[in-house]
Amino acid sequence: MTLAKGTPSTILSNKTAAAAGATTLTDCTTIDTDATVSVALEVKVTYGSSATLAGTLKIFASHDDTNYDTDPVEEFTLPYTTNATKSQTFVITPGPRYMKAQIVNNETAGANKDITAAYIYMHKQDVS
């Protein structure tokens, strides 16, 4: 058995999380961890010109890729700067067979507080 690093793939592409909102799990491609040793998620978001709070990355698990947990198995605070694009990579535990990611906008409602151009890139290392 050898370890193989796969080509990074996009699992969330150019989505918006409105103020007090979030991307949906259906927006995200499934992370299948069969034979996976490690998973890293590179998150890139752009904050609005009136933004005052960082967003949150939430990871949800499923045993069948249909029924996902109601609460996240992992949660991370995203890097933040008003009116700027920020990115950071997070290493997640590949314990559950299936996972999906969600970006939550922690702002209250208001103009120019959306998180836009939200992307998540997955980097996996598998046993082959």
Task: Describe the protein's topology.
Layout: E1 3-5, E2 9-17, E3 31-32, E4 36-47, E5 56-62, E6 74-77, E7 85-92, E8 98-104, E9 115-127
Antiparallel strand pairs: 1-9, 2-9, 3-8, 4-7, 4-9, 5-6, 5-8
Keywords:
128 residues; Jelly Rolls; mainly beta; four-stranded antiparallel beta sheet; elongated
Short description:
The protein has no helices and nine strands.
Any overview of this molecule?
It is a single chain. This protein has a single domain (3-127), classed as Jelly Rolls, CATH 2.60.120.1310. The model has no long low-confidence stretch (mean pLDDT 95). The chain has 128 residues and is mainly beta. The radius of gyration is 15 Å and the shape is elongated. Strands 1, 2, 4, 7 and 9 form a 5-stranded antiparallel sheet that branches. A 4-stranded antiparallel sheet has the order 3-8-5-6, with no helix packed on it. The protein has no helices and 9 strands.
Q: What is the end-to-end distance?
A: 6 Å
CATH class: Mainly Beta
Average residue-wise pLDDT? 95
Shape: elongated
Beta-strand percentage range = over 45%
